[in-house]
Amino acid sequence: MIERKLNRRLLSAASLVRQGAVFADIGTDHAYLPIFLLDEGRISRAVATDINEGPLASAERNVGDAGYSAAVTFRLTDGAASLAELGITDYAICGMGGELIAEIISHAPHLFDENLRLILQPMTRQAYLRKYLLSHGFDIEREIYTEDGGKYYTCMLVSYSGVRRDISEEEATLGLGSTRHTGDGRVGYLRARLSSLRRAADGKLRGGVAFPSELALISAIERLIPEILENNT
Ligand SMILES: C[S@@+](CC[C@H](N)C(=O)[O-])C[C@H]1O[C@@H](n2cnc3c(N)ncnc32)[C@H](O)[C@@H]1O
After folding, report:
1. Of 36, 63, 107, 139, which is most buried, counting CB atoms within 10 Å of its CB?
2. Any ligand 1 atom below 6 A from CB of 99
3. H/E stretch holding 40
């Protein structure tokens, strides 16, 4: 077996896939995630999808080179709506914007199922995605924060509970209750949020526009970071 390594962002997603899962990677691109999971013996088959032909062709090539062609089914499709009948248990939707991830979920009603596991790794609009999930009956069981090449990422373990909950802007931006966080990148992730909030506040200040929500979030993050650092020491 050739040793193939995943970057830390995708490793955090891989760590949330259940042993023996029937796995789907939505927007697979290079198919690194299913190949890694097959290498690890975590899964025995996978469905790899993409909306674009180029990425799907590259996924097929990589899977073939890895010797897993018989274990992976490829689908050129938009989102997850067409995958309802395939017996998939764990879905990864990684490396896309939070709004697109929410849209993919909203167009696939079969994902509203307590037995399924969704592994979501939004590159942007994380607060939007948290709000969408909680208000549509999903629970974020855990978030793993990672640092990779100076950038900060979060990966969410999500399942449907049917309990709808509206969360505040603060909760949506900071992530949910501290016991649900793991990984060593949360402070970096929050600092990155802080910088972008400060930039937004500066812009509004220059334009003579009030910015109470940015101010509230900035002070919440400034309170939270020392708490996290203290608990980690
Ligand atoms: C930035 S790549 C991420 C690849 C991989 N999941 C990762 O995290 O490294 C995003 C991929 O999602 C695909 N994509 C975008 N919108 C999609 C949709 N609605 N359904 C399926 N795939 C989509 C793109 O073609 C692209 O290959």
Report:
1. 63
2. no
3. helix 32-40
* Predicted confidence (pLDDT) per residue in 10-44, tens digit: 999 999 999 999 999 999 999 999 999 999 999 99
**Number of domains comprising the chain:** 2
Flag whether pLDDT at 181 surpasses 70.
Answer: yes
Q: Which amino acid is at 51?
A: I
1 lies in some domain: no
Could you tell me if the CB of 124 is within 6 A of ligand 1?
A: no
State the pTM of this model: 0.94
One-letter amino acid identity for 20?
G
- Expressed as residue numbers, the domain containing 72 is 8-184
pLDDT in tens, 116-138: 999 999 999 999 999 999 999 99
CB count within 10 Å of CB 196 equals 10
What is the C-alpha separation between 117 and 88, in angstroms, rounded?
A: 9
Q: Is residue 104 in a domain?
A: yes
For a mutational test of ligand 1's pocket, the pick from 4, 12, 51, i.e. the residue with the most ligand atoms closer than 8 A to its C-beta, is 51
Is the CB–ligand 1 distance for residue 148 below 6 Å? no
Predicted pLDDT at 3: 61
- Based on the fold, state whether residues 67 and 126 are members of the same structural domain: yes
For position 13, which CATH number holds?
Answer: 3.40.50.150
Ligand 1 center to 52 CA (angstroms): 8
Measure 1 CA to ligand 1 centroid, in angstroms.
27
Distance CA 72, CA 43 (A): 11
The finding on whether 82 has its CB within 6 A of some atom of ligand 1 is: no
Distance (angstroms) between ligand 1 centre and the Cα of 219 equals 35
